[in-house]
Design a protein that fits this description.
Blueprint (H helix, E strand, L loop, with lengths): L2 E9 L3 H19 L2 E6 L4 H7 L7 H5 L4 E6 L7 H15 L4 E7 L15 E7 L9 E4 L7 E4 L5 H17 L3 E6 L7 H11 L5 E6 H10 L6 E4 L1 H14 L7 E5 L7 E5 L16 H14 L2 H16 L13 H11 L2
Parallel strand pairs: 1-2, 1-3, 3-12, 5-10, 8-9, 8-10
Antiparallel strand pairs: 4-5, 4-11, 6-7, 11-12
The structure holds glycylglycylglycine.
Length: about 350
């Protein structure tokens, strides 16, 4: 029997509520589909920061290296700078383990209403470059607090980094509709974005490639949400577009993501797109679907596609029956929704 070691970082805020909900579902599926998951819980995040002045132990990354996958909830609290929480945990994990693909599927789920007309059949995938681009430590500030203060933030795009994300996205597009949309801004950002365009074009294989300015693409996702199938985007553009697309699908609470190391030399990490949502944390009302769907992506990655499909089928069934959390206009709490999902798996 396969026994997978999954390292769990529930992290902060609603991560502490939605992660246990998704784990209950994965455990139920493991029993049914005859595999085992050994959960290695890591109590890291903002509470750890308060006690130790850092988000994870100095050897945290070494501890994670032996996992088959990492299951992350959310990071961030109002009283600690986002630069500490993101750059102390999430980003070092993505970079150390070469999780250069951030795969973010977006679909309208049964019974979930889009705020827009024409988004009923939305089904697209955003392939976000995950380890370079605009998320960079290169830069600095001078004359802090003085009238002459300045800040410089460099973006880093490498040929190898752009080529591999383009190849991954093109292969995905070829397995779907054969069309790849690349988000650019080569009219305003005159060095990195023309470079992005060139390298994406060189690596798009046989798919039909369209290059669309990010501002026009944002408007298009609102006006004609189903007109894209696979979008490849830089780190920042992909981050923004996937929140936008999740909103178009009805709620960011349902959006999953996989931080993938496609070569499988290192563990991949699965997390919802949403953050820690301090405004609703601790009230038991968070939508666990984003975490559950991330769990399904993880099961797929681990080689359990039937269990993954059953998990998606079960939460879609609960939604179709009208059980919904508050973000989707319903009254169910996290636990009630999770019970309804588990009920379908027996
Ligand atoms: N689900 C993990 C989380 O808390 N994400 C919030 C966030 O700010 N993520 C930034 C990013 O994905 O780059």
């Amino acid at each position: 029997m396969n026994n997978y070691r999954v390292d769990v970082i529930a992290g902060d805020g609603i991560g502490l509520e939605v992660v246990p909900a998704a784990i209950r579902c994965v455990d139920a599926l493991a029993k049914k589909h005859e595999f085992a998951v050994t959960w290695q819980h890591r109590e890291w995040g903002s509470e750890y920061f308060r006690g130790h002045g850092r988000m994870m132990p100095t050897d945290g990354l070494e501890q994670l290296a032996g996992a088959d996958a990492i299951f992350l909830g959310a990071v961030g609290v109002p009283d600690i700078a986002d630069t500490e929480t993101l750059w102390g945990l999430l980003i070092p994990i993505r970079r150390t383990f070469h999780q250069y693909v951030n795969l973010r599927p977006v679909r309208t789920l049964p019974g979930v209403e889009s705020p827009l007309r024409g988004a009923e059949d939305l089904d697209l995938v955003i392939v976000r470059e995950n380890v370079e681009g605009e998320y960079s430590e290169v830069g600095g500030r001078t004359y802090r607090g003085r009238p002459e203060e300045s800040a410089v933030q460099e973006s880093i795009f490498t040929r190898a980094g752009v080529a591999r994300i383009a190849r991954y996205a093109a292969e995905l597009a070829a397995s779907r509709k054969g069309v790849l949309t690349s988000a650019t801004k080569s009219n305003g950002i005159v060095h990195t974005m023309p470079f992005w365009d060139e390298v994406v074009a060189e690596n798009a294989g046989g798919v039909r490639l369209e290059s669309v300015l990010i501002d026009a693409l944002a408007a298009r996702l609102v006006l004609r949400p189903t007109s894209c199938d696979v979008i490849v985007a830089s780190n920042l553009f992909g981050d923004i577009l996937s929140d936008l697309a999740a909103g178009v699908a009805g709620s960011i609470g349902v959006a999953p993501s996989g931080n993938l190391n496609p070569e499988r030399e290192y563990p991949s990490m699965f997390e919802p797109v949403h953050g820690s949502a301090p405004d609703i944390a601790g009230r038991g009302v968070a939508n666990p679907i984003g975490q559950m769907w991330a769990g399904a992506m993880m099961l797929e990655h681990l080689g359990q596609p039937e269990a993954a499909a059953e998990l998606r089928w079960a939460f879609e069934g609960a939604l179709a029956d009208g059980i919904r959390t508050g973000d989707l206009g319903g009254t169910a709490g996290t636990e009630e929704f999770t019970d309804a999902v588990l009920h379908r798996m027996v």
